[in-house]
Amino acid sequence: MTQTFRIAVFDGDGIGPEITKPTVGILQHLSAASPDYDLLFETLPAGAAHYAQTGESLPVKSLEAARAADAILLSAMGLPDVRYEDGTEISPQIDLRKAFDLFAGVRPVRVMPGQHTPLKLPEGREIDFVLIRESTEGLFYSQGTGEVTEDDARETLRITRATSEKLFRFAFELAHGRKTQGRGRGRVTCVDKANVFRAFAFFRGIFDEQAKDFPELIADHAYVDATALWMVQKPWDFDVLVTENMFGDILSDLGAGLMGGLGMAPSADIGLDHAVFQPCHGSAPDIAGQGMANPMAMILSAGMMLEWLGERHDVAALTHDGVRLRDAVESVMRKGESLTPDFGGAASTADAADAVCAMLDT
Ligand code: ATP
């Protein structure tokens, strides 16, 4: 029986539409070849360019259509020159995180042998860990409402028991799943600053409580500063890392750096009922309209979407195609013939995406 899934698509700003088009093309290609599932796409308006035209960054109609969809594929959004009156950037992706309670920002960091990385990996070493960034509170809690006077500026960091419990449970379940697949040692590291801030001691305490429900896994802790050091010195040691919003924001760019740049860094924002899949990078207005943006982060995010849908709805073909898509991207990058300029090549966005499609068919 063929199962149908509705995908809400936000094209984004800057390079957003350029990387969305070939990504949706690849998904249509996979869907057309599968007797087990059908993907239906609905493109929804939102973003900085839309705000400039209409005064709305995320129309209620778009929000509700996204809520009704089975998954949300969102491209890079925001433009430096288009801002709200208080000077902050247009970021519907953050609004979606709040509206749908997408507490777990999932950022996989993978460098398989032969893939590009600025590190010199010791023989036989590979990098394969997942950073989970809490995405609804932490130091982003007071975003847009911080108090600023002539002499004083304050933002509030907020950590709640309810969100932390969901977050840690998600992290342990992910580590459990990875261990079952033979990836990772079943280890979850809570990244915090519990030696300085009471809020992080609270965070860590909840982590330790949740860990008791997963005796088959290793639960340990690391301070965020030491984690930054180890991500460079011995990144192969990590399995699943879970951390506060701002720490995760910074460490995930370090993770993208390990993979050679933002052009290879996918992400997912996952809640209990909804999920948004989008590249880690922004809308790169400096290269927009030139057909040279790297589509791989977006394609890898689409692969994560297929895996998530497959697991959630128990459709093995979707999970399988998600993994196949990730493997195809990694093979293209290893081969090195269709690299975009950010990875030292001369391929266009379309060339790179076509190479992934061709790799899927081999
Ligand atoms: P944001 O704050 O919205 O995340 P940002 O200011 O960090 O955005 P990006 O838009 O991510 O910036 O761009 C940072 C740099 O990386 C730019 O030089 C941009 O051209 C480059 N870059 C980002 N994404 C890509 C991509 N997919 N392909 C090639 N280059 C990219």
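qc> The first helix runs from residue 16 to 33.
qc> done
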